[in-house]
Predict the structure.
Amino acid sequence: MITSEIVLATKLVAPEIPENLVHRTRLQLPQDPPPVILVSAPAGYGKTSLIASWIQCLQIPVAWLSLDAADNDPSRCGMHFIAAIRTVFPEFGERMAHILESPYQPSVRTVITTLLNEISELPQQFCLVLDDYHLLHEPAVHKAVIFIIENLPSQLRVIFSSRSDPPFLLAQLREQDLICEYRAADLRFTPAETEQFLNGAMQLQLPPEQIAMLETRTEGWIAGLQLAALSLQDHPAPAAFIADFAGDDRYVADFLLDEVLQRQSPAIQTFLLHTSILDRFCAPLCDFVIGSDNAGAMLSELERLNMFLVGLDQRRTWYRYHHLFASLLQNRLRLQYPDLARQLCRRASQWCKDNGLIMEAMEYAISASDFELAADLLELHRYQIFEHGQGKMALHWVRQLPEEILARRPMLCIACAWICYFLQNPPELERYHGLASRYLAGYQNASVKSTERIMLAQLALIHCCYLGYQGKLEAALAQAQDAIKVFIPGRTMYNSALGCLGVCHFVRGDTEIAIRLFEKHVDIIAGKNNLVIPMTAVLGLGRCLLLQGDTTKARRVYEYALQQCAELGKQDWPMAGKAHIGLGELAYQLNDLVEAERQLQRGVEITSAGGVHYVTAWGRLLLVLTRLAMGQTDAALEPQHERELTQRYLGRFSVEVARVSACLARVWLRQQRMDAVAQWVAAANLPTCVPLAGEHEAEYLVLVRFFIAERQMQPALELLDLLLKGAEQGKRVTVMVEILILQALALHGQGRQASASLALQRALKQAQPSKLTRLFIDEGAALGGLLRQQIKGAEGLETDFSEKLLVAFDATGEADDGNTGLDALELSKKEQRVLQCLVQGMANQEIAQALFVSPNTVKTHMRNIYSKLGVNSRLQAVERVRQLGIR
């Protein structure tokens, strides 16, 4: 559940309607309001009061969220968004609340997608009010809200209150009649409403000409009228005051503030000024800040005087000042008493800290420029802040601390370095790692059990992860081994170091060693609240077992992990998604495509909501491959996802259990986007003249496929020989099968049919115990005919396996052993596709779009086709195809 520290209950309560509210029937909502309602006007136009009056008349439940500057943190804003809806539907969003409180930063778009899906399942329509939207400036939050508007479920109506237009596509909403807008011109008091307010609500008994003058001078600005009315109460010369009052003067606000303050007692003036630094306040907080014992009575008096006090709950416990009024008071306080303002903020920070309001305590400490106090709070509560998903906000505060303060706090720097690693922010990671390293430089020979040596070991582990991010495997391995020597066995950091070792050995191809390391840490229950270590071990162990061909045991590992997550009530946590994606990969290799799609969809949904970036990317790629295998020829990554993955992973092979870079290239190969694959190969720059172990094995198999597609059979075979030796040494059966299949294709491409048959027979026998059918099917028609011949003549193959394999090929239409005539011409697979498009009469540009390649690539393929057909033009090529009877 969302803790009270993260969710401020007072933000979820609609303010009370002022007793002197002027009811304006002209501003009532229409009978059937559109899904989006925007109230946009400058400060002091009564936006919040108007909306508060609306919700009393609505026939549907209303959720209220008062926004503030801290909601620019997407995680914090998301928590408040969920909490607001829960005031109407108490069971809503429990899973997403846990995700937002996790140490991983959520992917905002996917979190909102999940929330919208949950909203669409709610039993009735409701309205959500987002008050003070102008306080938000974070682009990620704006993008999330825009996405909500663009995909609004029928159950939801949204009311925005803002001092400025939010960055929405208002014109588009207007064109589609999806928005109702109320502007400053609508909210201004009319002459009749001005008279009702001044003489009715405020009981000033002004003559019509003075009311008209005030209405003209203020242009109906409600706050201006209210300030003027307060000044006019008991004023000896109201006519003179009104005559001198100018609503368009930039000093009017200060003038009115002086008039209001000067008419109050010194005690009230002092109270207003001293408490103006508080974003929200209660009597005990005010007493502590200003050193009094009568704040409760003072707040009651301010309410009676209509002194711009806004109640935040029904019990009259928490309040805030009207934003404009508070701003003017704060400016006056800081101009006249700058040192006092900082002192008051420091006291507010202390009270909030003592009462468990750590986030607010941090805000006040920063406002007080008390950076030592801010650093103390961050260091003392670092786990609480980071575990609640507030890492981004914490880094925002840390960036404001002077370098010399950070340089003396290695523990805080280490915590920040971890957050930067999870946020994939290498520059800042290096900064905090460097600061901590410099502080600890003299402690290399300290006692192994000392705090300093443990911090040095943490730095080594962070460095291990960072080196892995850069693909420097051996250096990462050395750092993890150094860290293990210091950490206490059984503790979290020790287990983390062993997990990093396991990943390094997995990537290097030391499968047996990796299995032994992973098996020690797959117990989810033992991991308690930290699922990162055990779920990483689960994914690593499952993938090792799959590579060894033990699909049954791999499935048991994943399913048992999910069972344990369910026992802890954490089946929807982001880390649990790793097991779903592992099960999806397993189902894909066994050609159970429906189950693969189901598991992968589930895994992507919950990992993406928790910021587990590389696992989510891997899951998305596997999902595209699965849908392509299901015959969904238009299956592809969303453009923004492909751009992100290309930017992040092209040419970067980090130490990860999931080989995202290779999977990205495999998707492009399946889509026959050879331009993209060629770009991948160039960025990878993989050496082919050195002995190969398991490191980058998946990437080398992509390179082999590229060679075969380009009909470079000899380089492919040379590379496959090296890869096969490494796979055999590591007992990676699945990889051995894949290598043997590719050997068969390359040998077949050289016309060495006997050798191709032997390689394929070995592949079939190796794959049979595990029923790894998808490895064969994915190679398509190029393998289909050859495979059918081998199955018919092979000895030792089980009937059920061979029949299952042939049925799978027949279902995809890939096993046709009839000669199409294209193979005889030795056209590459891409050239065959280009020729088929050419015969259909498609122009070069159309062929390029259909095959996801550039027009220049099409021209290159056309030249090769003309050469192999012995023709010089498109017409001759089409005629030649018909003469040969090629289909």
Summary: The longest strand covers residues 156-162.
